[in-house]
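Lab notebook, bench 4. The sequencing result for the construct came back, and we need a structural model before the next group meeting so we can plan mutations. Quick request posted to the team channel:

Model the 3D structure of this chain.
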Amino acid sequence: MPLRNQPLLDDVNACRVPRGALAFWWLGQHSFILKLGKTVLYIDPFLTALDRRQVPPLLKSEEITNADLVLGSHDHADHIDRAVWPVLAAASPRARFVVPKLLLAGLAKDLKIPKARFIGLDDGTRAESADVCITGIAAAHEFLDRDPRTGAYPYLGYVVEGNGCTVYHSGDSCVYEGLQTKLKQWSFDLAFLPINGRDAKRLAAGCIGNMTYQEAADLAGALAPRLTVPTHYDMFAMNSENPALFTDYMRVKYPKLATRVCEHGQRAELSAVRARAKRA
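Done. Here's the predicted structure in token form:
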């Protein structure tokens, strides 16, 4: 059984993460807790109970007192959970909220969270907070949308650098021309990539798509992270995929690259890379 509520938070707080290592916990959909050193990040935390959910919320938002940063990739309910963020802001008063710059003013007003607690990013812009550096990467959520007035992007992924590690959380995105070029300036330890794909039926119903498992595998193949985690396939029955298709494809096509299918609420760790001893 997955950990629930306080035991999960106790595990996050008790986890010791040495330099060059990281730990993470999957909350379902594209939601993760990421720990880099002593810094705790909540990425796209989706905690509202809905009848359509296949995975119930693993945490109560009012219990989350350990957040240093909360990252929201875009303003859809399963990524920026508007019902949850004001509660998070109160429970973790030191936490700052990282969002697409295009959305910052509206979110601050609507959620009644002080604007000073937000960090707004756009494609290629970066900010430092809580001992980590975060860079925005434009995401193509079915389309590579831009605001016609400002040119800013409503959908982002994030590159998080901290504790000697580099992590890519793509947000909801398809692969688009230039994405690999942007990302190849980093050497990634960990990548979180959606695999739920897209099709006409879902798009017609308003369900905006992401990369397929094959496209996610090829992006992982190009970036060669130490570990790739498939995500965004478990929460809603009409928008799911079998993660074994991804891991099997990776095993055959990119056999040297590691993958991991996570269990909800269970700690996963990536150890530090030990430098090879120099030969005399």
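The domain at 6-262 is CATH 3.60.15.10 (Metallo-beta-lactamase; Chain A).
Will bring this to the meeting.
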